[in-house]
Design goal:
Blueprint (H helix, E strand, L loop, with lengths): L3 E7 L6 H8 L11 E4 H8 L8 E4 L4 E5 L4 H12 L14 E8 L6 E2 L3 E4 L6 H37 L7 H21 L8 H4 L1 H13 L2 H53 L5
Parallel strand pairs: 5-7
Antiparallel strand pairs: 1-4, 1-5, 2-3, 3-4, 6-7
Helix pairs in contact: 4-5, 4-7, 4-8, 5-8
């Protein structure tokens, strides 16, 4: 078995695996937890070229795809264009914005060696491609959501600057839009990427489970997940503060309107008593 190269992309929030499976003639209902693995004749029919037995594409429901042993950019672009026909929001030209490269090497060694660019194993196991691909897919998906979290932070910083300048009024629509972005971020990250979920093979094979846990720890997926979760909670607290300030200002405005109306009514009454009004 020769070495394997992996190239992972985070290209969108969600991919409907079942639509692709139906088009490829795969009689299976896919769930969120498992990737769609395309290889052999099916991959050949998509790329319109011959592929060897080591070439695969794994498509994940949370918007990531991983290419195994695809060396030419044209193959990747052709497959992305194919996916675009199912998910029109995919930006094919900027698909490599959130991406990562990795490789698997077989060498006589006593233990598994993990680095930032490759992993070395003493012998090949059939579960390696899927497990490595799963970790890479989740890693680039987290990278995308980490960037989106930065954008939300920038938006909140602008709102804080306005408060510091005495511009206390924040519209309901602006609050709603910002809150929706935070909720969407939390859904995409904490719920949909399913960082804490493990592939089925890890429950039936102890060696597969140990390998997956090592990959998970090396890529710090759990730590990155916890950081994103804590940052999301902080964002909610900040939005609660904005909402409280906004409601207080509106309440104060209503109170002043009531006071003014009462004063106006008193003035009218006094003018009527003094006979200054008809």
């Amino acid at each position: 078995m020769r070495d394997l190269t992996f190239k992972a992309f985070a290209i969108t929030h969600e991919i409907d695996l079942n639509k692709i499976a139906v088009h490829c003639g795969i009689p299976k209902k896919f769930t969120w937890e498992e990737p769609l693995i395309l290889k052999g004749e099916i991959l050949k029919s998509i790329l319109y070229k011959k592929v060897d037995e080591t070439q695969m594409v794994l498509v994940f429901s949370f918007g990531s795809i991983v290419f195994i042993n695809h060396s030419t950019p044209n193959e990747i672009t052709d497959f992305l264009n194919y996916l675009h026909s199912f998910e029109p929001e995919i930006d094919v030209k900027n698909a490599d914005r959130y991406s990562d490269d990795y490789s698997l090497h077989m060498k006589e060694t006593e233990s598994i060696e993990l680095t930032d660019e490759y992993v070395v194993v003493p012998e090949y196991e059939s579960y390696y491609p899927e497990l490595i691909s799963t970790v890479l897919a989740k890693s680039v998906a987290l990278e995308k959501t980490e960037y989106q979290l930065g954008q939300i932070n920038d938006k909140l910083e602008t709102m804080i600057d306005r408060l510091e300048k005495g511009k206390l009024r924040i519209g309901n629509k602006e609050l709603a839009r910002t809150t929706a972005k935070i909720i969407r971020h939390e859904y995409n990250t904490l719920a949909y990427i399913m960082i804490l979920d493990k592939p089925d093979i890890t429950w039936t094979s102890s060696s597969a489970g140990e390998f997956y846990d090592k990959m998970l720890e090396f890529f710090e997926l759990n730590d990155r997940y916890k950081i994103l979760k804590s940052k999301t909670e902080i964002l909610y607290n900040i939005m609660d503060g904005f909402s409280t300030i906004s409601h207080s200002i509106r309440g104060l405005f209503v109170e002043w309107i009531i006071v003014i109306l009462i004063l106006f009514e008193i003035v009218l009454s006094l003018l009527g008593i003094a006979g200054l009004l008809p």
